[in-house]
Amino acid sequence: MPRRPPGALRAQTRYARGSQPRPFSQIRGLRRNAQAAVRRLEARRFEPGYLSRALGQYEVFLRQPGRWLYVPLPDCPCHDVLGARDEIEAMLPALLPRARCESGRIVAGLDTEFERRTLPDPYAARRPSSVRPDASRRPWWYRRLTGP
Questions:
Q1: 10 Rama sector, left if φ>0, alpha if ψ -120 to 50, beta otherwise
Q2: Is pLDDT above 70 for 76?
Q3: How far is it, in rounded angstroms, from Cα 103 to Cα 7?
Q4: Can you give the pLDDT at residue 6?
Q5: What is the pLDDT of residues 103-113, one digit of tens each?
Q6: Residues 81, 61: contact at Cβ < 8 Å?
Q7: For the residues of 64-88, what is the DSSP string, one character each?
Q8: How distant, in Å, are the alpha carbons of 48, 78, 80, 83, 85 from that of 122?
Q9: 144 secondary structure, DSSP code
Q10: 6-10, 26-30, 57-61, 80-84: the lowest-pLDDT one
Q11: Could you give the number of structural domains in the chain?
Q12: Is residue 5 situated within a structural domain?
């Protein structure tokens, strides 16, 4: 019977003691080097799993059935898709160039779907500040129509 590698034995005893492995981002479509860059950045400036959680919220929102999507107001605690998109946008510029490019491609595909299934709000800049504060200075995803 072959001998088990020491690393496998250490891993088995570490998890047996009750400590769980740290959560980290595992993003479909990113190469290994880009995944490592995301994990390093999360370890330094964000929390583990930050990007994958935000991308997951964004993808779940886009998988809703129907032709048009309901975009909740920014202060609505229900499924904060706009906040998730803000988190993605906060992390992308801090990534290394190759990881930023690969992650940007994934986000661009999701953004295309978001734009396709929502309508532009022609009155976003003129809305009262209590509904959408500084809508004219906010990113494009805040200038989409909200549902009923």
A1: alpha
A2: no
A3: 32
A4: 73
A5: 999 999 999 99
A6: yes
A7: -SSSS-----TT--SS-HHHHHHHH
A8: 38, 24, 22, 21, 21
A9: B
A10: 6-10
A11: 1
A12: no
Sign of CA dihedral 116, 100, 30, 80: negative
The DSSP code for 28 is T
Query: Rounded to whole angstroms, how far apart are CA atoms 19 and 79?
Result: 31
3-class secondary-structure state, position 120: strand
Structural domain that includes position 139: 21-121+128-143
In-domain check, residue 112: yes
Torsion sign, CA atoms 71, 77, 78, 82: positive
Residue 33 lies in a domain: yes
Instruction: Quick: pLDDT tens for 19-34.
Output: 555 577 788 888 999 9
The pTM of the full predicted model, rounded to 2 decimals, is 0.74
Least confident of 2-6, 7-11, 53-57, 96-100: 7-11
Listed in sequence order, the DSSP H helices in the chain are: 6-16, 32-44, 50-62, 81-91, 97-117
What is the gyration radius of the CA atoms in the chain, in angstroms?
20
Which 8-state DSSP code applies to residue 22?
A: P
The whole-number pLDDT of residue 104 equals: 93
